[in-house]
Fold ABC transporter permease.
Amino acid sequence: MTTQTVDRPRTGLSRRQRARLGRGVQYAIGIAVVVLLAVKIDWATFSAAFLRSDILARMMPRVITVGLVNTLIYTALAFVFGLTFGLLLAMMKLSSIGPYRWFATAYIEFFRGVPALVVLFMVAYGIPNAFPGFSFPGGTYGMVMVGLGVTASAYMAETIRAGIQAVPKGQVEAARTLGMSHSRTMATIILPQAFRIIIPPLTNEIILLVKDSSLVYVVGVTADQYELTKFSQDFLNRTVNPTPLIVGACCYLAITLPLSMLVRQLERRYAKAR
């Protein structure tokens, strides 16, 4: 009778203990680097350059009531437009009618390849010049909704199309055997399941739109229509100090970090559901 022996590492530690020790070493190194940087930084000079409380006080509360609020409004309008038009484009791309597919494909490829700044500029100035006398409903807000929403719709269309195609074909076949029409099957069976799948990537689109709202300055906005970036730049020009940019960045983080946490939570919930 032979006995099989298991070779133990020379350190006498198990695999789990070695992994735990490795993580501890990495944490210790990270903490040491942070402490070293905190000690070496000249906080007085850094604060005077980037964190002046007097400038922050002058920015309040308009950085919230004007800059942040307008950023949220522009984002919400562009998202609604992009989602609505993106859904239509996704349906066209999946259509059995050739011209619909060709138009949707050309639109999506074009607007995903052109910078959002160029699209926003062309919408703001190209459409009124092409159609004299035309004005966007809602003025600047309507212009921004279309300008940002046009690009967003191209990305959302591909996201929605992928979500629709991810729904098992058996769902469609079961609905059709029950006598449902194609439109009713799509509205009551396919789209609800598809949107459940694509909620996390659509939330990511909102985060991208929050940052793309910083391009609104190209349409020529008034002081009451400033978004966060334009509001911060205006204060930067007056104070000749980068503190306004730091404040604006913190406001962006106040919007995007909760959205990022929501995306991760939705992804975990969807993974468990699967």
About this structure: The CA atoms of residues 111 and 151 lie 5 Å apart. The domain at 69-225 is CATH 1.10.3720.10 (MetI-like fold).
